[in-house]
What we know:
A: four-stranded antiparallel beta sheet; 11 strands; 23% helix; B: five-stranded parallel beta sheet; 5 strands
Amino acid sequence: MVRKFPEVKPPEFVDFPKSREQKVSLALSGLEKVDVFDVGDGSERLFVLRYAGDTSKAYLRRIDAKTGQYAFVRPNKELIQKVIGSEDEDLSKYSSGKFEIFKDKSGEYRFRLRAGNGQLILASEGYKEAGRALRGISAVKRNALDPGRFEMKETSSGGNYYFVLKAANNQVVGVSQMYESRSGCLGGIESVMNNAPSAIVISQ
Amino acid sequence: MKDDDVFINCPFDFGYRPLFERILFTVLICGFRPRCAWELADGKNRINGILDILGDCRLSIHDLSKSACETSDRSCRFNMPFELGLDYALRAVGSETVWRDKRFLVMENGAHSLRRALSDINELDPKHHERNFVNCIRRVRDFLRADVNAQNNLPGQIVIERNYESFDAVLTNDICVSMGFDRNDIDYRDLVTAMVQWLRSDAALR
Lengths: 204, 206
């Protein structure tokens, strides 16, 4: 039986912008659980964040024995494998993408998704309000878990491929860059599926 | 007066922040509503503002571990005993009869460490936490658990500490980066919002 905590009762802040709440909530969307592992003598702790769609990312917390201060670093793959103790763990998934929200030259809000290596893998259309762009990111996070929502296309001139990600209402929520091959395009879809659920959101 | 409101009286400085955040987190996870002087807007008459909050809160947590002159350094603070005095006076002689129902948790650093500096306080039976995170969480959790309004599914101190640590990892690495917050100087409202959203998310340990 799942034992639930009592209902959370936040303080009643006057004039607290809902958009901030929405952004914090977006940063947590898709996060299903956090596994915590003690490392070595206990001065280090590994946090593995598990997201929907079987994607994960990890942070290692190191405590300075003298000052008690701590800092988080990205752990190397060998450490993750050693601590988790699973040879089957797909370590390539331990990369975090990021959504960047920005205003284009025409004053519209757009977002793009970058993989952990910085590569641009998905871009949105323009939105008149920042809140709509946030909702667009939420839709990408949600729909990227379903392979059926991706549609691969060939350019009209032929030879180049790209894919679109559609929401449940068939609306396009993201378009990829161009790929020279079908296999490259499929790799792009896989990259969006791996990166979108755990990606953080950054306003520029 | 609101039955679920809990006044947190403690230092807000950087050195005390890990304890303060854990107290705040424990109050929220136990289903109570945290209040503190930090929520007051700058410029408002601070003492009147604190009195307003104290008047709202039936429960109070007063951490005097940095207040008594237990150490020879200059970190000794008098704001906390002053606010405890205001709260005590409200309960003892305040104009509202509901204030007689106020309950206090007074915390100190070591056992009986306040006795010399503030001997009158023995009546309030201070609890020591020795600045240990789990001890501090346990004191707060047990205080709330003993309240008539507490629900019977309060998590234990180890679950709360683990949950806070997971929250801290996500706050530091994801939420603060996303929102452009400085983790070491995060605004109180943003901190509480992040905690509330975390506790409402699937990720919170249950």
